[in-house]
């Protein structure tokens, strides 16, 4: 298993669709969160590819994830979950979520909501984690939480 990087700290949620996620991402950027600190995971569709390009300025990467199919996968969360052993692709979000300070049951919820068409959005960084959490709650992000279990799981 890949080692957890104690310095990576993520705040994440799942928006019900790209409309809600777009409002949340716009709010994050307006409050000074850089596109390089934001991650998006969603089912691979033409709409979701265009969404990532429009909102973050990146071409979407695609990642085959066991049990989920092909996902649009962009940002530092992807690398943290994937690890050196390609765990995200081999085992899914639920099985790799501990790498970023969340409990396995949180990962199951995030994976299920994403499988159902939700857009998982995460922001990397501890100093403004509470700010990101407040924005997620304000803009309809479901199951918004800070991965605070680093070193304890």
Using brief descriptors, characterize the structure shown:
disordered N terminus, 6-stranded antiparallel β-sheet, globular, 41% helix, alpha+beta, 153 residues
Task: Give a description of the structure.
The chain is α+β, with helices and mostly antiparallel strands and 153 residues long. The chain contains seven helices and six strands; from the N terminus they run βαβαββααααβαβ. It has a six-stranded antiparallel β-sheet with strand order 3-4-2-5-1-6, sandwiched between helices. Helix 1 packs parallel to helix 2. Residues 1-5 have low confidence and may be disordered.
Chain-wise SSE layout:
Layout lengths: L9 E6 L2 H13 L7 E6 L2 H11 L5 E4 L3 E6 L1 H7 L4 H5 L1 H4 L7 H12 L3 E6 L4 H10 L3 E5 L7
Antiparallel strand pairs: 1-5, 1-6, 2-4, 2-5, 3-4
Helix pairs in contact: 1-2
Largest sheet: 6 strands, antiparallel
Number of strands: 6
Strand order of the largest sheet: 3-4-2-5-1-6
- Structure class: alpha+beta
Instruction: List low-confidence stretches.
Output: 1-5
Quaternary organisation: single chain
Radius of gyration, taken over Cα atoms and rounded to an integer in Å:
14 Å
Query: What distance separates the N and C termini?
Result: 14 Å
The number of helical elements comes to: 7
| Beta-strand content estimate | 15-25%
The SSE string, one letter per element, is: EHEHEEHHHHEHE
Query: What fraction, in percent, of the residue positions are helical?
Result: 40-55%
Write a brief caption for the model.
This protein is an alpha+beta fold and 153 residues long. It has helices at 18-30, 46-56, 76-82, 87-91, 93-96, 104-115, 129-138; strands spanning 10-15, 38-43, 62-65, 69-74, 119-124, 142-146. A six-stranded antiparallel β-sheet has the order 3-4-2-5-1-6, with helices on both faces.
């Amino acid at each position: 298993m890949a080692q957890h990087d104690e310095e990576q700290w993520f705040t994440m949620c799942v928006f019900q669709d790209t409309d809600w996620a777009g409002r949340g991402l716009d709010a994050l950027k307006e409050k000074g969160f850089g596109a390089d600190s934001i991650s998006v995971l969603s089912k691979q569709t033409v709409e979701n590819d265009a969404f990532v390009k429009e909102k973050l300025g990146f071409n979407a990467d695609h990642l085959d994830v066991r049990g989920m199919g092909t996902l649009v996968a962009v940002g530092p969360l992807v690398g943290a979950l994937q690890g050196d052993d390609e765990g995200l692709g081999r085992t899914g979000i639920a099985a790799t979520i501990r790498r970023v300070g969340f409990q396995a049951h949180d990962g199951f919820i995030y994976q299920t909501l994403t499988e159902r068409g939700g857009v998982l959005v995460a922001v990397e960084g501890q100093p403004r984690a509470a700010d990101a959490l407040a924005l997620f709650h304000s803009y309809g992000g479901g199951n918004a939480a800070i991965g605070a279990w680093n070193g304890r799981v």
